[in-house]
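Support case: (R)-mevalonate complex. Customer-provided input:
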Amino acid sequence: MTTASAPGKVYLFGEHAVVYGEPAVPSAISRRARVTAERRADSRLRVHAEDLSLDGFTVEYSGETDSTPDVDVSPGLVRAAMGYVDAAVSQAREATDAPEAGFDITIESEIPLGAGLGSSAAVVVAGIEAATRELGVELGTEEIADRAYRAEHEVQEGQASRADTFCSATGGAVRVEGEDCRAIEAPDLPFVIGFDGGAGDTGELVAGVRELRERYPFAASTVETIGDLVRQGERALAEGDLEELGTLMDFNHGLLSSLGVSSRSLDRMVWAARDAGAHGAKLTGAGGGGCIVALDPTDGTESALGFTPGCEEGFRAELDDEGVRVE
Ligand code: MEV
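Agent response - structure generated as follows:
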């Protein structure tokens, strides 16, 4: 039996635009998904998932990946997670030249599903590491990141960048532009996260931006403007200029809103953070619901989120320098 874990992440800048080749800067956070793989005698895949939401709510799902999960809450999300596990195991089988390998897989995650904190990437990355190690093969981080990207790409029907999976595999802050993925230096960043208890459908949200981009030249320009903003943000990050980073995060949120991927609850949480004195705040990930990230070294944002309508939980998150690891 082998357990591996990988971190979730927040986007400082650049989600959505990164799908069109613009740069993005995600940063791993100290919330992890853990995947345990145990080799079976047959070639079947059995998946058990629990704690797939922040508040400790337990999804009891135990069955074959092609059966319908018997859960009361968010069965669609649980089914989506099973798709990612399937794709991760396919990659592990291919990497180890063991097409018939079967596994019992258990997922435990501190990252809410579909909420913009990179839960699917963390599950895929940890899943590939757990399953390949269980078969006695040690892949390098770059290969895990590449295979995890291919798995996400397949599940999201060709609409994925390398940002989520690379960040989850390597940990730390990273810069992704097309195929070019690398670690970058980052100061201590006082992240505060607000979670509305909901989730967005990444595939639909990415498709929505694609449509806008094809329909309106100014939407295409908005995507390019996000790229310019990210390049400016990289300079602020290198200089450790939190105020400038915050201003650019506010700007990035506005541009994402104009691309139609924010929501009332995300906007409320962003404004609560700004009113509480955060340097800046924006939605993180695909949007539509889920999480915002603010930069605030004081307790202001965290306590304000406690009183913000629509916010289920506000919490601080540290940058996590460690990527995928065997537990
Ligand atoms: C989703 O976490 C981030 C998006 O940019 C999609 C992707 O990069 O694959 C919306």
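The longest helix spans residues 217-239.

Case will auto-close in a few days if no follow-up is received.
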